[in-house]
Amino acid sequence: MGAAIGSMLGFAAGVAVSPLPIVAIILLLATPKGRVTGSLFALGWVVGLAALGGVVLALAGPADASTDGGPAKWTGWLELILGLLLLLFAVKQWRERPDAGAEPPTPSWMASLDTLTPVKSLGLGALLATVNPKNGTLTIAAAASIAATGAAAGAQLVAIAIFVVIGSVGVLAPLAVYLFAGQSAVTTLEGWRHWFIHNNAAIMAVLFLVIGLKLIGDAITVLT
Question: Whole-prediction pTM value?
């Protein structure tokens, strides 16, 4: 079990600090129905991570992700592809970073968050956890790495559950502040929102670079 858990920790941390869902839930919490929509967004996020990770594990089992105590060759090719994809994301994020002192653009869909129904908030959380290429890539890589360890099915499920918990910290933290911090929550969350918006590109560029290189290194080990 230790190998399965250790294999996914870096990916879980990467998902946890992804700025986009953090900013989204902070903006939702600032709306009149923030308690409901923010809670459902967080629920959708958790369910989305668990579902995508579970699907990858389920597919990796019949595909023999581990053979003779080591990762199968196809997992190495998958890690190589995902690693190269993350390096492309890193270059893209770095090139798109705002100039010093400039106000980074906010995604247009965020302007309509105050009109989201509870059901749509739930769906948005799930989409950002799965369909979003950056978070989806990290989750697929985490599940594939867990499967490649060859751990027992129960150990793999525990590992993916821990991945979901760690990967959800960034989304659940603003919700916890909103629910329990009282009047200071507004100021605290606004400070977080401002920081993440302004540092989004740099955070993700460094993150993708480090994890992408790790995946490529792991792939080379498996394939050689």
Answer: 0.84
